[in-house]
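Title: Prediction job returns without error message
Component: structure pipeline
Severity: low
Priority: P3
Assignee: unassigned

Description:
Job completed but the reporter wants confirmation the result is attached to the right record. Sequence as submitted:
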Amino acid sequence: GGLRIKKQAPARDEPEPLTRGFAASLLRSGEDLTEAEINRRASEMAASQIKHVQEAATDKHERALSQLRARVERAEAWKAEFEKAFGVAPNLHTSATDMAARVQLATQIQRRSFDTLARQAKALAGLIEEIEPTT
């Protein structure tokens, strides 16, 4: 279930001195880098990573902006189609539920015969006249 320490390594106050063989091995395997060269290489690597991160962020934001533009274009096209079909601009302050109820009412009215509606309106007017006769 994990690593365990069987025996704690002893703490050393003073590091062991470098042996001649170890120092020679370091010199053979490494380059002769000055502090300025090390700093220059580190700066180049950091600049390369920063550029990579900036390019990735720019690509991500450009994709998101492109998607938003496409959504706005679709919404504008829908709005224009709505205005053409209904003859008025959609009221963006009206809830979708209220808008659906209005469309359903218009659909129901359209299905009925206007003659039937006219007869019903005249009958209703007659009833109102009986209740409150005009003088």
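Comment from assignee: result matches the submitted record. The chain has four helices and no strands.
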